[in-house]
Amino acid sequence: MKPLRIGELNIKVPIIQGGMGIGISLSSLASAVANMGGVGIIATVGIGLTGKQSGEGYKKSNIDAIREEIRKARDLTPGVLGVNIMSVLTNFSDMVRTSIEEKIDIIFSGAGLPLDLPKYLVDGAKTKLVPIVSSGRAANIIAQKWQQNYNYLPDAFVVEGPKAGGHLGFKADALQDIGNKLENLVDEVLKVAQEIKDKFNKEIPVIAAGGIYTGADILEIMKRGATGVQLGTRFVATEECDASIEFKQAVVNASEEDIQIIKSPVGMPGRSIFNRFLQEAKDGSRRPKVCKHNCIRSCNPKTTLYCISEALLAAFKGNLKDGFAFVGSNAGRVKEITTVEKVFNELQAEYKQAT
Predict the structure, then answer these.
(1) Which domains does the chain have, with CATH numbers?
(2) What is the pLDDT of residues 130-178, one digit of tens each?
(3) How many Å apart are CA 32 and CA 338, to the nearest integer?
(4) Which of 17, 57, 66, 106, CA to CA, is 20 to 30 A from 290?
(5) pTM score above 0.70
(6) Element (H, E) at 108
């Protein structure tokens, strides 16, 4: 695989580990991926709930926790590290500022359009800004707004297709549309990136995400023009993943039939392992009495079927009776708990064989 360049960052292996919250990808997983030459990502959503910090309120503990996890990861690797910050978080601004203060290499941001992300950069900051998009239109809107308002262009695009895990940037009835296949979305975003290059002479790498599982998958999407890939699910069942053993085992045990699309309290469809908790939520017996965290702007605690922060936190800690696991479409192919090194070696071997 050819190295990936994002600005002056040289990423030896063009594999980015997807940001997975709550607590699934923290400093342990991120540093292990970075040590293998890829980009390790710390997921910031709910990071203060993971037990890493004693709380002084949700926002304060999140900021303390993100500082701690970035610093821990830095102690464990000299490689490239990123954070994933959802644009719908109520403390999005503080998360971004803190990450830049901690000199994180890359901020990845999606779950909406992060239209004001460049305004948080300060003089001398080397942090790269990478929006996560689900269409060429979204990529174009972000690029135009950033250029117009901040004289800044994205350092890369992650284009995420409908086979990804977690929250999806599509309406539920559009997930099967042929136009939303990852290959077609990559073509759309590549066109936008080429237009930007022609107009502003800036190279913007396009990173493909969602449903990529093998080295052969990586080769095929790179033939399409992508210069990097993002994988999440394949890194969950690794020893270095920050999730509980129960969470990892739930992924190992899941069959293809267990993986379903659900309606998330944040207003988006999501892909998860369906279980008793989600059935109870569907039946209306998991409604929260109060909103404990005020974490996501688009969640309405008066109408939501369950608290997604509490559910994902429970799953992270190994309590699948009171939570559930978000996964990608290929989770049914995960058959054992392995290591990050083995995953990288397998991907490289599969890629080489496919060529």
Answers:
(1) 4-242+336-354 (3.20.20.70), 245-316 (no CATH)
(2) 999 999 999 999 999 999 999 999 999 999 999 998 888 888 777 788 8
(3) 13
(4) 66
(5) yes
(6) strand 106-109
